[in-house]
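Reviewer 2 asked us to include a model.

Predict the structure of this chain.
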Amino acid sequence: MKGTLPVIGVNALHHPNRQRFTIAHEIGHLEMHRHLIDGKVHVDKAFQVLRRDNASSTGTDALEIAANQFAAELLVPEDILVSLIGNRIIDIDDDRPIEELARKFKVSKKAMEYRVQRVANRS
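Predicted model (structure tokens):
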């Protein structure tokens, strides 16, 4: 926090898509978990509750899962994704459709696979 305004920093060495996801992820924490970080300096490696470590990367930490879902939905809105996919069947052995969608939304292939699976499971 800088005064009363939150500040999000990203690693300049990361790919721009990763930087976008990091920013969206941290916005998720601000929206959903502000009560845990208000008035504090939040650095993933130093803040006990929201730090990024081996446990958070396994996908089992509820706060990290929520922030990741928020980021995925912010960067790849379901209604827009559904309108682009339509009734098209995406073959899991053909990477091209996922890669094309990932480029269009400026996210990683892995993030797009996650979003397509989540949307398909809701149908």
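The chain has two domains: 1-75, 77-123. Residues 45-52 have pLDDT under 50 and may be disordered. We have added this to the supplementary material.
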